[in-house]
């Protein structure tokens, strides 16, 4: 069964490849800010699930395939945080999170396509507690200078340079990276697609 990954994320691609899947990558280009603004007053989980649904729906589907869309954000002190985008925002973000914990929430949507139409779908969010370390000012500036924290949800990675500053997690690490393998397996199972048909 062909899997279409509706994401430009190199992290999601690498998680799937390490798990034996060579997805077809199609970038959705969804305007995430506009979609979130249209949602009214959603919960954090509803927000990331809605974004994952929009991404999966937006990409071109093959006649017979499954499509996976994801969206990750950091829930910290009641605020849902995405990618910082700038060094200043990433620095401020780290000044807030250092030494504390947050929830990295990833929304997942899987579509089953047959005969060129979506015949079934399943969505869910996965939440993982992330315990942040306390980088020194010198370490933080050096990390910011790499650019990595600017382009990832929550301004950190657990499998990259950010790993030095993550004291631990409680939950699924693949979900933090960007796509939960166990949750995706369960969603595919609901659609009657064993993961073993993907590799
Ligand atoms: N390698 C790595 N990447 C992470 C980690 N935490 C978050 N990220 C990345 C995964 C996603 O690429 C990004 C979250 O942003 P989004 O969910 O909006 O996805 P993105 O805009 O990258 O691509 P997409 O919207 O799916 O086309 O942050 C981590 O611990 N490790």
Automatic annotation (TrEMBL):
The keyword Cytoplasm applies. It holds the Pfam family Maf. GO terms for biological process: nucleotide metabolic process. The keyword Hydrolase applies. Keywords: Cytoplasm, Hydrolase, Nucleotide metabolism. It is found in: Cytoplasm. Nucleoside triphosphate pyrophosphatase. May have a dual role in cell division arrest and in preventing the incorporation of modified nucleotides into cellular nucleic acids. This is Nucleoside triphosphate pyrophosphatase. It comes from Lentzea fradiae.
């Amino acid at each position: 069964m062909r899997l279409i990954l509706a994401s430009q994320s190199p992290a999601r691609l690498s998680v799937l490849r390490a798990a034996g899947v060579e997805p077809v990558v199609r970038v959705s280009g969804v305007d995430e800010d506009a979609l979130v603004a249209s949602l009214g007053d959603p919960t954090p989980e509803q927000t990331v699930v809605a974004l994952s649904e929009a991404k999966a729906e937006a990409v071109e589907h093959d006649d017979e395939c499954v499509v996976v869309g994801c969206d990750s954000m950091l829930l910290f002190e009641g605020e849902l945080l995405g990618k910082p985008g700038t060094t200043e925002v990433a620095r401020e973000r780290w000044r807030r999170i250092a030494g504390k914990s947050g929830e990295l929430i990833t929304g997942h949507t899987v579509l089953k396509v047959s005969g060129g139409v979506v015949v079934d779908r399943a969505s869910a969010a996965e939440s993982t507690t992330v315990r942040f370390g306390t980088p020194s000012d010198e370490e933080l500036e050096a990390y910011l200078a790499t650019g990595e924290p600017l382009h990832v949800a929550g301004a950190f990675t657990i499998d990259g340079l950010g790993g030095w500053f993550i004291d631990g997690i409680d939950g699924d690490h693949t979900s933090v990276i960007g796509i939960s393998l166990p949750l995706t397996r369960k969603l595919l199972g609901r659609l009657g697609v064993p993961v073993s048909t993907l590799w």
